[in-house]
Design brief:
Layout (H helix, E strand, L loop, with lengths): L9 H38 L18 H14 L3 E5 L5 H12 L5 E4 L6 H7 L15 E4 L13 H4 L5 E5 L12 H14 L4 E5 L18 E5 L13 E5 L1 H11 L15 H31 L3 E3 L11 E4 L3 H13 L21 E4 L12 E5 L5 E5 L4 H17 L10
Parallel strand pairs: 2-3, 2-4, 4-5, 5-6
Antiparallel strand pairs: 1-7, 6-7, 8-9, 9-12, 10-11, 11-12
Helix pairs in contact: 1-2, 1-8, 2-8, 3-7, 8-10, 9-10
């Protein structure tokens, strides 16, 4: 069928057919999770009384914006917590995380990462890199981290002692630019219990980016006090044009709202400019869109396993986020993969990605993202730093069929560049 629209080598088509057969049982499980999450979201919309009147945008200060209030209530119910702050004003997941950290931490407090080094863009926020630019370190917040074990899993036994004296225990759910396992909800629940054992008053904050709706529970249903994410990832369903959320304990969410706007005003101000409809509609679509993204990741893993590459996780492993890592081994392979993904994009398919000095990253990064919303990684995208082992991190896919084709075009691009070696009997 692909030959009617895209020129894919028969060698790759045969490999893709075998990969898809290997994925079928896993696809059934993904659909079951999506069905559960869709009903959970639908129940929240019904219970919170979402109405067309909530779609009306506000301007100026945005006092009394009913849509803003119902969006917060729906999100809080969906993720099983007391309160939520969902705003288009968050420009990225990093911004939402920064707001949350500055909201709950004070000079002299200690931030402890339980999952080793944080994602690249958080290093300057914390103060691991940079100086004098307003990081947490500049404001007197101390930082410590508990390194992961050699197998990439948390050091659960060390948590109770490590967390003593810490104000916030920080957990990054996804792998970032690392080849460690992402943390499933059971692992996060275990970390939360270990934190409580060592420091009952410590705030557990989870960077939930890429993880929403991949499992049937969220970290706030497993003991986390705050979770933070981006609406141009999973919970925006491909429809939110910008934004992010912070959800969890009411008192902590209030502190974060004061940081987002100003003390005393908090969540009571902030016009919505007509964005509420897209954010609500995106949240409603999110479970099904996330299922497509997970299927795309599983297919990519199975295909590149067929082609002889190391993948993380394997196609047969259970998922806790939408990210698929593939070790490509050479800069040429990484470039070819991203250029192929770009060719499979609905927007800017003619553009050829190149590595560049992307703000917030230490190494040059190459990124493929031909999306309706710029940088929306719930849409098919791929990126990676230009450093050993030249791995790529693939995420997204608004529909499985378009995502599958994008992955095949990535393989085709690599084949044409000599980055894939044909092996019999494909």
């Amino acid at each position: 069928m692909e030959q009617n629209f895209f020129a894919i080598d028969p060698y790759l088509n045969r490999a893709a057919d075998r990969a898809e057969v290997a994925c079928r049982a896993h696809f059934d499980e993904i659909d079951e999770i999506a069905q559960y999450n869709q009903l959970k979201v639908m129940a929240a919309f019904n219970r919170q009384g979402v109405s067309e009147s909530h779609f009306a945008g506000s301007t100026g200060y945005g006092y009394g914006d009913r849509g803003r209030e119902v969006l917060d209530a729906v999100m809080a119910q969906v993720v099983g917590c007391e309160d939520a702050l969902v705003r288009h004003n968050f420009v990225s997941g990093t911004h939402a995380l920064t707001t949350a950290l500055f909201g709950v931490l004070r000079p002299g407090d200690t931030l402890l990462s339980l999952t080793g080094s944080p994602y690249d863009t958080m290093e300057e926020v914390i103060g691991i890199r940079g100086e004098g630019d307003g990081s947490l370190r500049d404001f007197g917040v101390q930082y410590r981290q508990l390194d992961l074990l050699p197998d990439g899993t948390p050091d659960y036994g060390a948590v109770p002692d490590a967390v003593k004296g810490a104000k916030v225990a920080y957990i990054q759910r996804s792998r970032g630019y690392a080849l460690r396992p992402s943390l499933d909800i059971a692992a996060i629940e275990r970390l939360c219990s270990a934190v409580r054992a060592g420091n009952p008053g410590c705030i557990v904050m989870v960077d939930n980016c890429y993880g929403e709706f991949v499992e049937t529970r969220e970290p706030t249903e497993a003991g986390a006090d705050l979770i933070v994410g981006s609406l141009i990832k999973n919970p925006g369903g491909g429809l939110a044009q910008t934004g992010g959320y912070i959800a969890g304990r009411h008192d902590l969410v209030e502190l974060c709202a004061y940081r987002l706007t100003s003390p005393g005003s908090g969540r009571e101000v902030g016009c919505t400019l007509g964005q509420t409809r897209n954010m609500l509609m995106g949240l409603f679509f999110a479970p099904d869109v996330v299922a497509s993204a997970v299927k795309t990741a599983v297919f990519a893993a199975a295909l590149f396993e067929e082609l002889g590459f190391a993948v993380y996780p394997a196609h047969s492993e259970r998922r806790t986020d939408i990210i698929q890592a593939v070790t490509l081994g050479t800069p040429q392979g990484l470039e070819a993969f991203c250029q192929g993904i770009q060719k499979g994009s609905p927007v800017d398919a003619f553009v050829q990605p190149e590595a560049w000095d992307m703000p917030g990253y230490e190494d040059q990064v190459i990124m493929a993202a031909g999306a309706f919303t710029m940088g929306a990684s719930i849409e098919l995208s791929a990126d990676g730093p230009m450093r050993e082992p030249y791995a790529v991190w693939l995420q997204g896919g608004l529909t499985y069929h378009s995502g599958r084709m994008g992955v095949l075009l990535a393989a085709q691009s690599m084949l044409e560049r000599g980055a894939i070696t044909r092996k019999a009997p494909a």
